[in-house]
Amino acid sequence: MTGKVVCFGEVLLRLSAPGHELLLRQPRLDVHVGGAEANVAAALAAFGHRVAVAGTLPDNALGHAARGELRRLGIDADGLALAPGRMGLYFYTTGAGHRPSEVLYDRAASAFALAAPASYNWPALLAEARLLHLSGITPALGANTAQAALDAARAARAAGARVCFDGNFRAKLWAAWDGDPRAILRGLFEQADIAFADHRDIGLVLGQVFDDGDAQARFAAAAGAAFAAFPQLRRIACTVRAQASVDHHRLGALMAVRDGGVHVCAPIEMAGIVDRIGGGDAFAAGVLHGVLGGMDDAASLAFGQAAGVLKHYLPGDALTLGVAEVQALVDGERLDVRR
Amino acid sequence: MTGKVVCFGEVLLRLSAPGHELLLRQPRLDVHVGGAEANVAAALAAFGHRVAVAGTLPDNALGHAARGELRRLGIDADGLALAPGRMGLYFYTTGAGHRPSEVLYDRAASAFALAAPASYNWPALLAEARLLHLSGITPALGANTAQAALDAARAARAAGARVCFDGNFRAKLWAAWDGDPRAILRGLFEQADIAFADHRDIGLVLGQVFDDGDAQARFAAAAGAAFAAFPQLRRIACTVRAQASVDHHRLGALMAVRDGGVHVCAPIEMAGIVDRIGGGDAFAAGVLHGVLGGMDDAASLAFGQAAGVLKHYLPGDALTLGVAEVQALVDGERLDVRR
Amino acid sequence: MTGKVVCFGEVLLRLSAPGHELLLRQPRLDVHVGGAEANVAAALAAFGHRVAVAGTLPDNALGHAARGELRRLGIDADGLALAPGRMGLYFYTTGAGHRPSEVLYDRAASAFALAAPASYNWPALLAEARLLHLSGITPALGANTAQAALDAARAARAAGARVCFDGNFRAKLWAAWDGDPRAILRGLFEQADIAFADHRDIGLVLGQVFDDGDAQARFAAAAGAAFAAFPQLRRIACTVRAQASVDHHRLGALMAVRDGGVHVCAPIEMAGIVDRIGGGDAFAAGVLHGVLGGMDDAASLAFGQAAGVLKHYLPGDALTLGVAEVQALVDGERLDVRR
Amino acid sequence: MTGKVVCFGEVLLRLSAPGHELLLRQPRLDVHVGGAEANVAAALAAFGHRVAVAGTLPDNALGHAARGELRRLGIDADGLALAPGRMGLYFYTTGAGHRPSEVLYDRAASAFALAAPASYNWPALLAEARLLHLSGITPALGANTAQAALDAARAARAAGARVCFDGNFRAKLWAAWDGDPRAILRGLFEQADIAFADHRDIGLVLGQVFDDGDAQARFAAAAGAAFAAFPQLRRIACTVRAQASVDHHRLGALMAVRDGGVHVCAPIEMAGIVDRIGGGDAFAAGVLHGVLGGMDDAASLAFGQAAGVLKHYLPGDALTLGVAEVQALVDGERLDVRR
Amino acid sequence: MTGKVVCFGEVLLRLSAPGHELLLRQPRLDVHVGGAEANVAAALAAFGHRVAVAGTLPDNALGHAARGELRRLGIDADGLALAPGRMGLYFYTTGAGHRPSEVLYDRAASAFALAAPASYNWPALLAEARLLHLSGITPALGANTAQAALDAARAARAAGARVCFDGNFRAKLWAAWDGDPRAILRGLFEQADIAFADHRDIGLVLGQVFDDGDAQARFAAAAGAAFAAFPQLRRIACTVRAQASVDHHRLGALMAVRDGGVHVCAPIEMAGIVDRIGGGDAFAAGVLHGVLGGMDDAASLAFGQAAGVLKHYLPGDALTLGVAEVQALVDGERLDVRR
Amino acid sequence: MTGKVVCFGEVLLRLSAPGHELLLRQPRLDVHVGGAEANVAAALAAFGHRVAVAGTLPDNALGHAARGELRRLGIDADGLALAPGRMGLYFYTTGAGHRPSEVLYDRAASAFALAAPASYNWPALLAEARLLHLSGITPALGANTAQAALDAARAARAAGARVCFDGNFRAKLWAAWDGDPRAILRGLFEQADIAFADHRDIGLVLGQVFDDGDAQARFAAAAGAAFAAFPQLRRIACTVRAQASVDHHRLGALMAVRDGGVHVCAPIEMAGIVDRIGGGDAFAAGVLHGVLGGMDDAASLAFGQAAGVLKHYLPGDALTLGVAEVQALVDGERLDVRR
To answer: How many other CB atoms sit within 10 Å of the CB of residue A296?
Structure first.
């Protein structure tokens, strides 16, 4: 496929307690490389796209290892800057049944958070790019990253690349500094061709509340308002998640297309979830795969839903299955051992 | 909270096959520290209570390690005697689906079982105690421990502390010596302010059968008889467990209060159980937390049920989650990742 | 029990990714010894039968280790030849939910596949045998093994032993050489007293299609045709498997008896499957245990179904539980911890 | 080779802390099957001998697993009785440098220790035996095992088999009951054709002290006295061990032959020891291999020394390398990777 | 023993690559709890002293776990404050041969580093204290901790407790802020009764250079100058370390006593080092054990040297062996397995 | 650095027993990616060179994973063809002390061995190449790879790139087909500018014997003859290895330069070796780093020796340390913990 996808965001290490243990009950942590945008990059690379990650890693053994892991997944990591500072970490406890999983962030003052916006050479980083992917986590980290995200989005549009923005609103991160999420996120929505956002995310940005009717109705109303507010925006998609227990969810999906109505994927039952982290990122990557590859919108949404579902059954932050394996779920292939 | 809870019983090592393996199919055993009373102690400590464990451990590396583990959990272990002898062990195989889990006891002739009743200085051990917790496992281990349990209960009442007795009837243990369970357990029920027991446990002690009606009716009848027989007894509680499979249970709860009727908690569905051991102990600790903390009886029972449920989703013998995490289940908080 | 069971087939090593990981995401492979016929042997040994495995292993550390593992299970492995060559391997990825498990065979040109038919001394290998067990995998591996399987079956009948043949048709294996599966498998069906085969297996061998009616009707029709075509054949059995997800199946069972109609076991729900590999082999072993031990046909089938179900809850390729544990499932014993 | 070797003794489980950790610092124990006589059996089986182990194991999952492990090693375990009781255990901490390794026995009241001497049918157990191997650990365990060991030795001689006795004096075990080690061990020495013992062991049995001169002189004097006292005794061998540190030893070897003087093997330097347990048992097995196979005495001793040395570089209690690998050390083969 | 020892400093988590791997070559980190002062506390607790740790931990799962680990070791952790912030971490790679081990600090802006000096209630924390132990790492972390260390030392002297100060100069830590190490460390030396420091540490503080003669002469000269400069100082001790390779060192020890000359322990050879971290802390604890327990100075130094040596053979940051095990090395006990 | 290094050879998986275990004593294999040429590529990439690997991998999960691992190390793997077939494997047992390590090859009929010589597009694969690296293992695998190696070497010279050839003679591999090693290796020597070979390798190719004098004299004589026979050859280097035990070697190094004499590096003592595999490949990479970077010959040899030594202290097949870490050993930096 021609043209590469550039994902800009923080690459993190997940340090998790083994199995379903609480942290440090065993003297060991399992390590995964993650980060919302890196997860999207990994899935798109597994789907056969040319993908690069832009950002900043600490110039130490942890940063080097994270960069190597992205390369292992077939991602172009040459645009990742190495700078003094610390690695962004998060500690993770895998819940079960009625005990929720927990994230303990330890990412403050990371090399990424401290990198000056001017340290990124966007024309060079975006050369040959057909799409820039960003998420709302990056601007939530502080003034540096909020500015860098906006710079990146503007540079992408200037270079003729599409912009995809995944809202990913996390109140706890925004609370750590004095940035105004509504204004900053609005600035990013203004650049986006594709947005991943539900009615709450859109409501936050538009200063509106969309709570009439069922999930589909709320989303349709919010999407309509977003299309009105952001003229360049063409598609908005989100998942619809319901929890029967910590490891048994149902995952539906919605996509609104400008002048094209709302596509709906009925929920898929997910019992015995293996690793819920990155489900939304895999969904986004699946939808992007469809959109970039010229699939029709309904097919793109279904591919995204299947990608999202499959991520729940793979350990680690990113989906690394190929197109055929995702398509098999869309197509309803049998579930017995493949020999 | 003022006044400490003293738990008297045997601290055991659980040696379990990894994952769902049979014993010794892999050349490795996973180790947990357990024992019904220590489990109650651990949960109460996690709930913020001052807790001490009384008993006897072997004066060797295993006994020292078990004592250290109790301390790690915030339990006062200074009252645990160290004596010659062996550590009580049990080997454990975690079942799944239609294959039951199995306990293989190797606790005969342990330092605890052999400790002379006179070796315990109850006035000292019970100083500042507001409650003594005992279980029916201790008297089942032999004449020494049967006597020690009775001594402890009497000393507690003499010192003005309440006594809690968890029936925990295990026929296999009683079969190993010539003690009369009915008489011995009756002696302990006579001291108890709170008992954990179902209609079968009560029936055994009273020499009656309570099998008319459904679970609630049988329990109500048995509780009524128990209140009649044991004038100091104020509360009796039990769980109501149904198994759909080895790792899918339903857990309800009942509590009879003297002159207060029977409180009922509707069953909670528990699919994908992680570790069923200690579920009853966590229930008991949860109820005790409510009772000691002045919660009303219905709330205490609900807290106990939630504690019992959560234990099924945590590896190891003891629940080590805090009050907030248990209360969140009572309150029906959402089950997605806590970030 | 008098008379031994001889199982002839390839002993394989399973190299599997840990937990639910993809291959080589962690730098480690878990190892199990397997192979359809060895699995049947292991289960029969666990049920208390005298069992021997015949075949060929490479004369190197891997072959020696596989032989040792069979011995550990109580199988007589003295008849396994050691010869130059390589060990048959398969790499395995354990799926979950909507992500299927995958087998990657690496068994071509193994010592077993290359062993000359004349290298087996069947009269010696079958001494004291009451039954020879074979599967359709062996003839699928090439001309050598196809001939050896036929030799073995004929020698067994000549020696007065019964022959059991498990169809186990695997198109991918047959595709690797120019053997005619229909003719070769027919040759083996002609020797069999007991066959494990469903309506598709029988249809393949007879060149017919049995697709009228439900599973039971199709099986009855196919079995009738097989009894007509193969006069020595007395029993045909198969499982009926339905998948709700990769780790949630339903397993029913059918057995047709010459002049005895079709016995049916209602499906057993299997949620939270631990290891699906070898489920069919455990079923076959269970049925054979019943037949060899003089149980009536319905009881044999139920024992086989229970054995098959239990294998899904035990890691590894073979069921190694005893008769009492299988019978407990048939009898519907309770599913709580056995203490 | 014709005629089997029967080893009589307790089969134990070693539960050891991983790596160089102290016990229970990590929640895991590594498991090995051991026991002095089983170790000799395992090595002889690896050297190609027909070997059986006699003794008693508990009829539970642990006993079954230990039996399976012996079978895996090619040992005939059909003569091992299964009886009620517990498994003999020992906990192990692997030292390093200046921190000694430690054994914590938990073998009291095991099924083996409690087995009645009359429970062994020696004529059956010793059928086809060319040699019975015993150690001084067995009589140290109590009156039952002391009697059984003597019964076995007498039955072996009555059946025309040779008797090998490895002194293995452990004061701590003898201290646990009122047996007289001198009298009991003397009774066993009286039956032995081959003894493994140093000048202290011999001195203990004979009530003499042999401390004049260097190690070789003391051994020669003691051996001379032993040959005088025990007319049937033909060979006495021992290792000479010096410790530079916990994991750096030097191992020499001595063998006295009646009317044949003392053979001496110069010490072999052992730096970086992996697992010291079972070194003496491997030495004994190596010497027995030479003696049973008709090697001359010097060659037998050198083979024993090499077997003993190699055990130090293999994890677990038993040496499981073949004759060629031991002989390669005797022959001084190169130490680079074998490809 | 009467009176407790209070250790004030940062409790850290060590996250280390397994075995001799580089960081993140395997997706796993091994975790130990460390920190120079906590290591001293752990060793003193293992030697039987009453020990408390003062400091600040983050009020999250990591801080709670670290506190629990100290409690497991028998340390009084009730004086450890819990505060918002992050856990101090360090990543560790264990070298071998010619490849050095590496520490990657990630401790900036930890809850300990940010804790206000006024947050410590020294009179309460030092109640019943006979000795306060501090190290030069604490003041190196920033102005807060430099002030807190000085406050603690002054409060200790005011309360009549002795002060022990371990120089532990780390240029890299001091370089991260504008504190003047010479002045700050001098302030702490002025409070110390016992100091652990070599001629370079003393030279740094006094602004002198002591490089004439051999190690002992340099140390004697520096100690003399220190005694002159710091009138309350009574003892100065240090190790003398030489490296043959990364895992083969030699460790000697020196102690100067005011008006008492210099005691010297000849170097002990340490081949095959298991874990070098904490060697100096164990030495300090060993010397303190001697001094606090009234051993003579030569014996205290020898005990300290043995403690330091033994730490190199135990995984983790702290020595947790008892007095008998350390004394055994001083006494030259044999190095074979203790059974 | 300008111009890339292309390494052509088979990428293998090493499947090794954990720790010092024998194969399959634990049900687990540790996995590393290796292969002589890939090891050189990995080290050069770690030294900062642009490096590509050419060859053929199976188009399955194993081949994909191996390719990902090379990418993780910063190697350009886009030139690696994916083709049907199997992955080359080798099983590995890590020896210790007097027990040698062992390689069990399972690489016959791999996708690499079966790839047609014409399948490689050398002009494309060698674009921008400044050096092609080959080893004698590739031609030993069969006629296909022998031809492909020769094609590659000729194409490299035609494209103006230098050729480096590492003899790596393995008699066992050559024995598996009828190729004439002398003629084939001679063909490759004829293309080489740099050769890694000792006096035996050169003697084999030239049909001569060089055994007069010590190691240096033999090497000098052989190198002189090689320079005479191969006019394009400019440098020949080799290590000189002596074994004190399996994990204690001494490693010296020699390099002969046309018209420049023989450079000698004195042996470095290597006690406590961690992983000896790939030591020669790291040496070759180190020498190439020096030669490509314009270091003088003595410095290049010293860098190569240090690289070779350091590989012995790093788990896995390849050295992945940077230039600074290798240079530190050349420079004799201190060996204590780097903080």
So the answer is: 13
Per-residue pLDDT at A170 exceeds 90: no
CA–CA gap between residue F200 and residue F206 (Å, rounded): 10
Burial tier of F56 (Cβ tally within 10 Å: 0-12, 13-18, 19+): buried
Nearest Cα residue to F321 out of F8, F48, F38, F37 = F48
Kindly indicate whether the domain formed by F4-236 is annotated with CATH number 3.40.1190.20. yes
Whether residue A1 has pLDDT greater than 70 = no
Pairwise CA distance, residues B86 & B105, whole Å? 13
Contacts of A318 in chain E (CB under 8 A): none
N- to C-terminal Cα distance for chain B?
Answer: 30
Cα–Cα distance, A120 to A138 (Å, whole number)? 14
> Which chain D residues in 118-157 lie under 8 Å from chain E, judged by CB atoms?
none
User: What is the rounded (10 degree) CA torsion for E106, E108, E111, E117?
Assistant: 140
Tens digits of per-residue pLDDT, E297-339?
Answer: 999 999 999 999 999 999 999 999 999 999 999 999 778 899 8
Nearest to B9 by CA among B113, B102, B85: B113
Question: Nearest-CA distance from C99 to chain D in Å?
Answer: 32
Q: Which two tokens stand for residue E324?
A: 């008998």
Nearest to B245 among C315, C325, C335 (CB): C335
The answer for residues whose C-beta is within 8 angstroms of residue B314's C-beta and 6 or more apart is: A20, A22, A99, B274, B275, B320, B321
Sign of the CA dihedral running E6, E9, E10, E15: negative
Distance CA E86, CA E114 (A): 10
Asked whether the beta carbons of A10 and A112 are under 8 A apart, the reply is yes
Three-state DSSP class for residue D149: helix
Provide mean pLDDT across the span B282-288.
Answer: 98
Task: Say if residue D105 is exposed, middle or buried (CB neighbours under 10 Å; 0-12, 13-18, 19+).
Answer: middle
> Which of A193, D166, B127, F329 shows the shortest CA–CA distance to E246?
F329
Structure tokens at F152: 């590659």
Among A152-166, D42-56, E172-186, the minimum mean pLDDT is found in E172-186
The rounded distance, in Å, linking the Cα atoms of C222 and C208 is 9
Structure tokens belonging to residue A175: 């609370």
Q: In chain D, which residues have their Cβ closer than 8 Å to the Cβ of B62?
A: 23-24, 91, 104
**Tell me, what DSSP letter sits at residue A128?**
T
The tokens for F94 are: 């890590």
pLDDT given at position E1:
47
Tell me the pLDDT of chain E averaged across its residues.
Answer: 96
Q: Which ipTM did the prediction report?
A: 0.95
First to last CA, chain D: 30
Average pLDDT rounded to a whole number, residues D20-37 = 97
Tell me the nearest-neighbour CA distance from B93 into chain D, angstroms: 10
| pLDDT per position as a tens digit, F279-288 | 999 999 999 9
The pair of structure tokens assigned to E3 is: 């009176």
| Beta strand C4-8 pairing with C51-58 | parallel
Is C281 labeled as catalytic in the residue annotation? yes
pTM to 2 decimal places = 0.97
Cα-based torsion angle of the residue sequence C162, C168, C171, C175 in order, rounded to the nearest 10 degrees: -40
Residue spans of beta strands (DSSP E) within D220-275? 235-245, 248-257, 261-270
Query: Mean pLDDT over residues F231-240, rounded?
Result: 98
Extents of the domains making up chain A? 4-236
Per-residue model confidence as pLDDT tens digits over E120-132: 999 999 999 999 9
d(CA E23, CA A64): 10
* B220 — pLDDT class (breaks 50, 70, 90): very high
Mean pLDDT of F203-208: 96
